[in-house]
Amino acid sequence: MRTEKEMFQLILQIAKEDDRIRAVYMNGSRTNPNVEKDIFQDYDIVYVVKETKTFIENKEWINQFGKRLYMQYPEDTDPEEHKEKCYGWLIQFEDGNRLDLHIHAEDYAKGDIVKDKLCTILLDKDNILPEIPVSSDETHWVTKPTEDAFLYTCNEFWWCLNNVGKGLWREEIPYVQDMVNMVLRPQLVKMLSWKIGITTNFSCSIGKSGKYMWKWLNEKEWKQFLRTYAGGNIEEIWDSTQQMCQLFHHTALFVSEKLQFKYDKEEARASYSFFLHTKKLPKDATEIM
Predict the structure, then answer these.
(1) To 10 degrees, what angle do helices 234-259 and 219-226 make?
(2) Would you say the CATH fold of 141-280 matches that of 4-137?
(3) Which CATH number is associated with domain 141-280?
(4) Model pTM score
(5) Domain 4-137 annotated CATH 3.30.460.10
(6) Which is nearest to 245 in space by CA: 119, 143, 159?
(7) What confidence tens digit (pLDDT) does each residue in 66-95 have?
């Protein structure tokens, strides 16, 4: 596996030798001082170029980065006017390294680099890129919610719990998994993020899908969060969803108290009670209540 030093040398050497490439900057986890380095970190690289057309049309130029296992072209189906501004190659190499390489037209790059604070300039042949502050994950920090946002999140969670209950009673596992993981879970992660925001003065990022929440939740909370994940067993999903409800309620109480928001405890009680009632319904039931 090529070392970090070797990869950067290659990335910069190619940029220096190609007159079409005028600058290079990096974003992503490698620029984030709060992310621990590991062997799976991508190299998220942007080449600022005079034009994109010749790069896109020449299918061979990308070979100089090394032997590939496979590759994706994320902008391949985008309109031509977008490709003139931005185009990319996501590359998994045989040696284990991964390079997410994009080419940006100059004007597009100037707008992109100031929006994302997780950027580091590696090369600028013509001093075309604006000055940027030291790389920080500040743009990804948890933001303080409004009371309306808090109330909406609570209502969305407790209302959609109904769908999980009836789906489990019907044994519609694919539907239930979607409702749990695509509807309820985002509300739970959001609520937990607000608690973390309160305890850190809203100065941290919990990462994609809340993957860094373990850093700020206590051991009991983190273990309970992990118990909200379940496989395809009906009883396991009933139990994991109950864990999810209990964790959500406990966290919502904390957030509402600290931010002095209203929390509809009666809505939560009624929703959870109906969920538990649904769990007890026999399969031959002809009435719900």
Answers:
(1) 140
(2) no
(3) 1.20.120.330
(4) 0.80
(5) yes
(6) 159
(7) 999 999 999 999 999 999 999 999 999 999
